[in-house]
What does this fold into?
Amino acid sequence: MSTEKYLSRNVRKLSRSLLWQFFDLANATPNVISLSVGEPDFRTPWHISEEGIYAIEKGRTYYAPSRGLMQLREGIVRYYERRFGVRGYGTDNVLVTVGGSEAIDLICRLVLEEGDECIILDPGYIAYEPSVLLTGATPVYLRLRADNHFKVSPEQLEEVITDRTRMIILNYPSNPTGGVMTREDYEKIVPILKKHDIVTVCDEIYLELTYGSKPCSIASFREIRDQLVIINGFSKAYSMTGWRLGYMLADSKIIDAAVSIHQYSAMGPATPAQFAGIEAISPKSDRDIEEHAEAFLNRRNWLVAKLNRIGLPTAMPEGAFYVFANISGTGLSSYDFCVRLLQEEKVCVIPGTAFGPAGEGFVRISYCYSLEELQTAVDRIEAFLKKL
Amino acid sequence: MDEMRLLKILENDPRITVTDLADILQEKEEDVLQCKASLEREGIICGYHTVINWDKTNTDHCSAIIQVSAKPERDAGYDRVAERIARFPEVTNLYLMSGTAEFMVFIEGRTMREVSDFVAQKLAPIEGVTSTVTCFLLKQYKVEGILFENEKTEDERMLVEP
It folds into this structure.
């Protein structure tokens, strides 16, 4: 007899992401070249790791305050001011979380309930939809278009807003599309968000990886500060994925409410990781961020040129470390393309549909790899395309 | 053309093809070639070197770092002494230093005897050189930013991540 009956209705609504199916498939295939990771191939800069090690050596393994170490929260406030020109936040506006993921879960639980609608981007990062579903609220897709560089347009936004819309989850620069919202793009949608008084969550985990234009945080729009929740973390900019260190920036009342859940659940990332975070968020580490971003920019340019040359039309993404290649010309569905590429040439890329129905016709390719590894993969993709 | 970016890429990978450079820099191949040539002409790009761990080969190899004290000359300062030292092919690197000795000289030879003979017979007698301290390299751990000890370099990340 199935034990499913013990699970809550909301949990039973969750389906297993296509992405994890590919995880199983790739692991079952020998000698796979994967272009499917979501983390940098660089190591955490040594001076940052060393601070974590030093914290352990000094016995700083006690509980940290639920909101996070004060010095880390101060560092986060100064970081947003220094790097993105965002002013007006204080330490009361910061909650240090276990990666950005905890912050996503927290904000959904804080704001949403059954009967609410939450707008999520399609295609979009795979954690948002389940986080919304777990609250009993309904996710509503905002279908992004390749010809609009996967940005949110004011017309599209107005179209999906109803009187039940309570929250929207943005993610720019975007996983999986690499799309970016510039200041001008935000200027068009901020008045709409304000008019409808929608809680606006923006996951800015890839903000440091913005190419070609100055990174713009939606937090620089002070007029929506009360309804705004910024999610960010250390994983992508500092190559600190395994440290599980993220944070939420929001109005102090929202932070207080978030603490009321967080202090009884996650309680916070490991204290030594927070000490490493203090080093990471300081101006000393700005150079590391810039060096990593430049390496990604080089790889992006290289990969997009190569993919276009071998016949896979790929637009130049403006951020993150993914390209969203258009495979519709092959006549295959995204899923079939990826399964066949994996089986026939042992290259693993992720079907766009793993990120929502609007991902049909695309595949996500990560460039968190050396040029040598990317070259081998591109050669195999080319061989695959020639067989079709 | 962003010359600084070109230089940084070449410093990390001197073997990179012009096509790859052009793709990365979003420039035409002929422009990249021209820029590279002009950087070579100007002496900004001085060479393309391969870093070799000779300890792993069966050849005899001996390196030493010599601290060389020297007297400056009127009008030329240390430049003329430096020029005399630099002429020897055994000298691979030469720096004017702050600190106790004026020069730091890197010497490459086949054996310790060969290197010490060179110091005694060629380097120390140079006019203007007042004393030398020879330090032989016993083991190389990191050269030109490259770790020689074999670290585990396997990609330990998961094959698929969200």
